[in-house]
Amino acid sequence: MALLFAQRLQVPVVMTDLDQARVDKGLAYAHAEIDKMAAKGRVNGDKANRLKGLITGSVTKEAFADADFVIEAVFEDMKVKQQVFAEVEQVVREDCVLATNTSSLSVTEMASGLKHPERVVGFHFFNPVAVMPLLEIVRAEQTDDPTLATAFVVGKSLKKSSVLVKDAPAFVVNRLLTRFLGEVTTAYDEGTPFEVADRALDPLGLPMSPFTLLQLVGPAVAYHVSETMHEAYPDRFYVSANLKKIVEAGKTAIWTYDSGTPEIDPEVAELFEQGDAPLSEEQVRDRALTALAQETQLMLDEGVVAEAQDIDLCMLLGAGWPFHLGGITPYLDRSGVSEKVNGKRFLPAGVASLP
N or C: where does the chain have the smaller number of CB atoms within 10 Å of the terminal CB? Predict the structure, then answer.
């Protein structure tokens, strides 16, 4: 993230962390990435040196005293994030924008204890930050217009496609992915064979299978987001008991690829418990698409985004939803799922539709 800001904005960027060792590790990573760009001929030696010079590190928040824009990306814990913002507010100017890269927490609550909550805005990147083009910009209850405008200008300068979203749990992409993956993990927990649940969505042409995505995100992060969403919407968001066991056991990998296809790690398999109600691939896929249609309609009803096309853009650019499907809502319209679940289409007949 620091490298992206330095490279795109050409301004000094300072990183802080808990101790010098962590600061040094962050700087070393950024410098190594710059060296890779130079080795590939993407930047010359002079520019590489200038980029390295723009990125510095500190163990104190006083380093932000003259900053125009501060973004936090600490662990997804509300109290920790509130503490970080409280400390930063003590040293920055009153016109400094405070942004959060939270993936699921309330930006409004995060800013609630500050003297100037109106300058706090959600600024949610997607991994890998340098590659994924989407930026969810979250307007909290007290975010003012100058702060929001600044966020959009910065997002554009970073060459990201920014979408305005309401301060609702997990915003757009993570909310839909969590609901989507929840249906697949539920099917597995209920007794569906691993390979059946994992292959169920192959006909959609997604960039990776559900369990591959889950491992990429990381069991701990996936479990935390599912807990957050379950707390907000307990009737729709499932918290997998098996996923909880993985996290409690400290496992970071769920399966191996030794045979060329994903197989559950034997140590992890010993932790799992399954029911006796297996589903077919078609049944798993139907449940997942039904969940997507329901959640998408609820998000529109809640005003999380202005229109269905915003959700399509978020999923195309932030989740790798296949471009050839035209977006989630036209796909759900064409396949009949929208009307089956919600009693209506998301888009007018003929919009993003095949003859």
Answer: C
Q: What residues are labeled active site?
A: 124
- In this predicted model, what pLDDT tens digit does every residue of 45-63 receive, in sequence order? 999 999 999 999 999 999 9
Kindly report which listed range (11-15, 29-33, 255-259) carries the lowest average pLDDT score.
255-259
Which among 205, 202, 221 has a CA at the least distance from the CA of 261? 202
Per-residue pLDDT tens over the stretch 241-281: 888 988 888 887 777 766 666 677 777 778 888 899 999 99
Fold (topology level) of 169-355: N-(1-d-carboxylethyl)-l-norvaline Dehydrogenase; domain 2 (1.10.1040)
Burial class of residue 74 (count of CB atoms within 10 Å of its CB; 0-12, 13-18, 19+): middle
- How would CATH label the architecture of 73-167? 3-Layer(aba) Sandwich (3.40)
Region 106-112: mean pLDDT is: 97
Which sequence spans correspond to the domains of the chain? 1-59, 73-167, 169-355
Which of these, 248, 234, 254, 260, lies nearest to 188 by C-alpha position? 254
Total Cβ atoms within 10 A of residue 251:
15
Beta bridge partners of 255: 264
* Residues 122 and 102 sit within 8 Å (Cβ to Cβ): yes
N- to C-terminal Cα separation, the chain: 43
pLDDT given at position 212: 83
Q: What is the pLDDT of residue 298?
A: 97
Q: Which of 199, 352, 172 is nearest to 288 (CA)?
A: 199
